[in-house]
Known about the structure:
- With 318 residues, this protein is an alpha+beta fold.
- The chain has helices spanning 22-44, 49-61, 106-116, 124-133, 147-156, 237-242, 245-256, 260-274, and strands at residues 5-13, 82-88, 93-100, 121-123, 184-189, 195-201, 222-224, 229-235, 279-285, 290-294, 298-305, 310-315.
- The protein is globular and about 55 Å long.
Amino acid sequence: MQKISLAIHGGAGTILKKDMTPELEQAYLQGLQHALTAGYALLEQGGSATDAVTLTVEILENNILFNAGCGSVFTKDGTHEMDAAIMSGSDLSAGAVAGISNIRNPITLATAIMRHSDHVFLSGKGAYDFAIKQGIATAPDDYFFSQFRYDQWMQIRNSDVYALDHSEEPELIVEVKNKKFGTVGAAACDRDGNIAAATSTGGMTNKKYGRIGDTPVIGAGTYANNSTCAISCTGHGELFIRAVAAYDVSCLMEYKGLSLQAAMQEVVNNKLVKIGGEGGMVGVDATGNVALLFNSEGMYRGAKSSDGTNFVRVYKDE
Ligand code: ASP
């Protein structure tokens, strides 16, 4: 019988129990659980994998704890520029948006690009115009304000450094040790054996020059193909782009016959590690197997499947 499955993440990095209050840990776990439960319920009702990943990521975007949607980090100019992508494994259709501001749910826009445009990848003002035409909800700047992200930005705004999400000190920049990432994502397998992946992010604090990470780059941060896997990544985007990380998992399955778990293991714990690509990914295959791997200290994550799998976790070795 066809399994249905959903795997989610809310970012990876140096997430240590000693740095967490019990209240914050609970809030993260509840945020993950809420998204997981809602997305899985949709799959149970017969919803498609693409609808399930869209809904799941929208819920995570609406949670200020995560670096996506309303919780997005600040750019060098004090704005919020978000990236998102979705891909459907049944027909390889995809939609992506980069550098978008004032859109309440960037993943909703990416899904609209996939379904209602002749294109895959839109950016900036043109993407905003398309969103308005599609009747997609906008939000004022203050909707994206959070004190925590603002304080992060204030630490480095007068410098040229840019920081991965949750970095606590100004020196915690790209070459730093204490890295965390708050991007959100989901991968789902529905009861027809169709799979899909979706990812959304605010990117890096103090980013400039229109920097775009791996999240909206099909094949890097997001990829889905029914014959292999659906993958959503989180981590140091530049390295995930250079590794073509999500597609590499698919290639190892397609051309080398590796299982989802083995292929992900190779990419996350070997290929990415070799080039300094810290982070992780979640994925499903078309038989409903799930895999969640990371090479950092932790990853906000969860999975639920009709085979009885059901968990939300934060730290390594849980
Ligand atoms: N991958 C994202 C980026 O580089 C960051 C993250 O995962 O938190 O934009």
